[in-house]
């Protein structure tokens, strides 16, 4: 145990001290922050005013939507069928339909649009609606409490009892009035983002494991080391060490990105126009023109875009999402890293890895290619099988989870992934053990198969 | 007492037998030479001793009991294919390898300091391995092999990559380890160093031990009762004054003397040779021609080739 710890420690420290690690740690968040901030900035700074028709059958919300430079709301009273068929001629950007409910308060809304609706529009609508419902609920609760003031209620409990999340479906409407689903919901973005993150993480750090193994082989240190530790310990030590480097980098990215985004959006949306020199520098650093200050107050008046998005993010089932993400992130990496290590062990140089890379990269790339399809049909048989099969499940399951996947399926997928991890590690250990002691031999699949069958 | 012995070790790879019932006995505090042509199975045997790979059959006895996985702490191994992490500093690397052998951090540091002083390489501690010459790297490598005071040292081609001065330093160090009580298994093609260092040898060819035992005894069995004499005062043919059973293998002449190599029949002694020459020539020198390891090696391996083993 002490030895494997020594190996992990070496792998971790030598990598974290590298210049490339430090550069990546700084550049990554800048890039990610930019990809978050630029669309928000563009969305908030577009001059075109979007008109949104509101068909509110309940009548509670229609007055609550406030116009801004960006979005103008106007109520309509026709029935939904004629509103939809007349939509393309109306010149409206979107049609918000809040259907009447009989018993409970309305928590569903549908947005129809020809083009996709930007996240901050949906977020704003969601925001307004849930606030309104919460206010109504609060009022009702308070009246209730006045009549019956025997049971004391804590503020926390009160707040929790009125907390409401609003479900907004965005549907694409064609010119002839037919509809199809469109994909701007925050959970889709989140699922996709998580899936892509896992994909990159596996590729980046998996190939680092492979390169590490090749380095040990070409520098001929491997036999020195395996006279002190078992080959399997060396392999696992490297995989875990590199994985920890990846986690470190990932955590630093999350923290730094969050810090940058918060700082920049705070500047963007702060009510007063005066800009300190520091703020200006921050904005320029992200490649944005200083005229952002003109757009910022407007954005603030109508809907704080970050606030809206944060609100929307809050609607996702986070414990499940984060738990699943961490699991698929870590176990998916471990499974693939073992395969990468096996390839590193089998070849003499990085140039020889090509022929063995295909079976590893294929399922990963396939999962990303399938992502579009899976988003369209998250509960279909294809999505199901891809999210169960261990080599594709880390990416595909993460894309599916925000749509709501039965726990049983998630657990099945996790169990299979764990089995997949044990399987590939066992297999990789056998290839690795033989491969690291082979020099100057062109290895074929047939050869690998032989190594797997060796007894010891 | 044998520190280590391997008994009837066999190892089969997919289509060839790397080792076929190989047995060796390594006496304590001696140097044991493991010889053999390329591909004979030496490295496989060494890896089996280091428990890097497991034998299909056979067992190994170490310090009077079965060899155990934890025994790697008592073994120091310098492989033929050796190297270091290029991007690490010498000190860090040595610390890492020493700790992998089971030394505590503190102990590893203390011992490394001692050896770095002894080899006069203290200035290298913070230098990256890639800045070192190949010979310097070999020194570091040797040093971490012996850092944990192993009972059994295994060197696979230790002298490759060393210049003559450092090779000599290494030789002295190997002998010093032996004097300290370490047992050394030493695999090489360099027969001169075998002759200089080894007490016992085993010659492996085509997966089998074809010759083994104390080097002194092996040399004795390979003696052919051949003597070289240097003489003068006789210009006629030598065969004329020798008994017929005495065979002249070679004759030459330099400015002062004549030299001849003569093989005596079994049972004849050098005294018989001298006696027959004494009346006719003036003898200046007589030497027994003892075969060197190189000859024995070649002879043993080619004989093996003449009587081919059964091929499967």
Description:
The complex is a heterodimer of chains A (456) and B (312). Chain A contains 18 helices and 6 strands. In chain A, strand 5 and strand 6 form a beta hairpin. Chain A folds into 2 domains: 303 residues, no CATH class; 137 residues, 3-Layer(aba) Sandwich (D-Maltodextrin-Binding Protein, domain 2), CATH 3.40.190.10. Chain A has a 6-stranded mixed sheet with strand order 2-1-3-4-5-6. Chain A has 456 residues and is an alpha/beta fold. Chain B folds into 2 domains: 212 residues, Rossmann fold (3-Layer(aba) Sandwich); 65 residues, Alpha-Beta Plaits. Helices cover 32% and strands 29% of the residues of chain B. The two termini of chain B are 37 Å apart. At the A-B interface, helix 1 and helix 8 of A face strand 6 and helix 2 of B.
Question: Which descriptors would you attach to this protein?
Answer:
heterodimer; A: 456 residues; alpha/beta; D-Maltodextrin-Binding Protein, domain 2; 6-stranded mixed β-sheet; 6 strands; 7% strand; elongated; B: 312 residues; Rossmann fold; 4-stranded antiparallel β-sheet; 9 helices; disordered C terminus
What's the rounded overall pLDDT mean of chain B?
Answer: 87
Number of helical runs of chain A? 18
Sheet with the most strands, sense and barrel status of chain B:
6 strands, mixed
Mean pLDDT of chain A: 79
Annotation field: number of helices of chain B? 9
Q: Kindly provide the name of the CATH class of the largest domain in chain B.
A: Alpha Beta
- Given as residue ranges, the uncertain stretches of chain B (5+ residues, pLDDT < 50) are 307-312
Percent of residues in helices of chain B comes to 25-40%
| Secondary-structure content class of chain A | alpha/beta
Overall shape of chain A: elongated
Overall body shape of chain B: elongated
Oligomer: heterodimer
């Amino acid at each position: 145990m002490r030895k494997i710890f020594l190996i992990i420690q070496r792998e971790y420290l030598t990598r974290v001290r590298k210049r490339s690690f430090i550069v990546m740690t700084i550049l990554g968040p800048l890039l990610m922050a930019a990809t978050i901030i630029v669309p928000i900035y563009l969305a908030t700074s577009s001059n075109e005013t979007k008109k949104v028709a509101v068909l509110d059958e309940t009548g509670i919300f229609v007055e609550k939507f406030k116009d801004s430079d960006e979005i103008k709301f106007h109520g309509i009273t026709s029935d939904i069928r004629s509103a939809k068929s007349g939509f393309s001629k109306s010149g409206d950007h979107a049609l918000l339909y809040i259907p009447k409910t009989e018993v409970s308060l309305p928590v569903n809304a549908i947005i129809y649009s020809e083009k996709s609706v930007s996240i901050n529009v949906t977020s704003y609508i969601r925001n307004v609606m849930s606030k309104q419902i919460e206010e109504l609920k609060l009022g009702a609760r308070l009246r209730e409490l006045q009549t019956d003031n025997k049971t004391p209620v804590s503020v926390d409990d009160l707040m929790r009892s009125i907390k409401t999340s609003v479900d907004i479906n965005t549907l694409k409407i064609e010119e002839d009035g037919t509809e199809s689903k469109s994909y701007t919901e925050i959970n889709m973005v989140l699922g996709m983002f998580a899936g892509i993150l896992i994909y990159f993480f596996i590729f980046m750090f998996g190939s680092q494991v492979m390169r590490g193994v090749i380095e040990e082989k070409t520098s001929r240190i491997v036999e020195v080391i395996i006279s002190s530790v078992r080959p399997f310990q060396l392999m696992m030590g490297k995989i875990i060490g590199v994985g920890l480097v990846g986690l470190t980098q990932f955590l630093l990215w999350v923290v730094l990105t969050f810090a940058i985004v918060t700082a920049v959006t705070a500047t963007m949306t702060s009510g007063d126009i005066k800009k300190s020199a520091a703020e200006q520098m921050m904005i320029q650093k992200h490649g944005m023109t200083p005229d952002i200050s003109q757009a910022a107050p407007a954005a603030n008046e109508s809907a704080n875009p970050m606030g809206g998005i944060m609100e929307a993010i809050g609607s996702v089932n986070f414990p499940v999402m984060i738990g699943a993400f961490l699991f698929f992130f870590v176990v998916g990496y471990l499974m693939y890293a073992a395969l990468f290590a096996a390839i590193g062990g089998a070849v003499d140089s990085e140039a020889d890895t090509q022929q063995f890379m295909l079976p590893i990269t294929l399922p990963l790339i396939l999962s990303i290619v399938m992502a579009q399809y899976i988003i369209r049909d998250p509960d279909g048989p294809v999505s199901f099988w891809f999210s169960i099969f261990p080599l594709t499940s880390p990416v595909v399951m993460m894309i599916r989870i925000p749509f709501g996947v039965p726990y049983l399926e998630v657990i099945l997928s996790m169990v299979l992934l764990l089995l997949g991890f044990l399987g590939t590690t066992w297999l990789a250990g056998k290839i690795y053990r033989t491969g690291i002691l082979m020099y100057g031999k062109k290895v074929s699949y047939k050869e690998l198969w032989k190594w797997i069958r060796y007894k010891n | 007492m044998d520190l280590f012995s391997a008994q009837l070790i066999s190892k089969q790879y997919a289509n060839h037998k790397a080792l076929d019932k190989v047995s060796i006995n390594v006496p304590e505090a001696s140097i044991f030479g493991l010889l053999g042509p390329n591909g004979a199975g030496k490295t496989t045997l060494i890896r089996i001793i280091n428990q890097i790979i497991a034998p299909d059959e056979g067992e190994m006895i170490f310090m009077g009991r079965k060899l155990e996985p934890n025994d790697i702490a008592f073994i120091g191994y310098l492989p033929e294919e050796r190297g270091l992490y290029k991007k690490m500093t010498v000190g860090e690397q040595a610390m890492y390898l020493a700790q992998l052998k089971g030394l505590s951090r503190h102990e590893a540091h203390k011992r490394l300091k001692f050896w770095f002083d002894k080899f006069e390489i203290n200035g290298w501690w913070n230098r990256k391995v890639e800045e070192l010459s190949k010979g310097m790297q070999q020194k570091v490598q040797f040093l971490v092999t012996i850092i944990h005071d192993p009972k059994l040292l295994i060197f696979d081609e230790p002298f490759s990559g060393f210049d003559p001065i450092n090779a000599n330093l290494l030789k002295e160090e190997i002998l010093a380890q032996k004097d300290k009580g370490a047992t050394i298994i030493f695999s090489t093609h360099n027969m001169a160093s075998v002759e200089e260092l080894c007490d016992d040898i085993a010659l492996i060819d085509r997966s089998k031990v074809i010759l083994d035992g104390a080097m002194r005894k092996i040399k004795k069995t390979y003696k052919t009762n051949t003597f070289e004499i240097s003489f003068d005062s006789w210009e006629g043919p030598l065969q004329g004054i020798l008994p017929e059973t005495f065979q002249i293998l070679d004759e030459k002449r330099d400015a002062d003397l004549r030299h001849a190599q003569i093989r005596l029949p079994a049972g004849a002694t050098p005294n018989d040779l001298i006696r027959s020459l004494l009346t006719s020539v003036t003898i200046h020198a007589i030497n027994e021609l003892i075969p060197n390891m190189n000859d024995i090696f070649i002879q043993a391996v080619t004989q093996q080739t003449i009587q081919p083993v059964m091929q499967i």
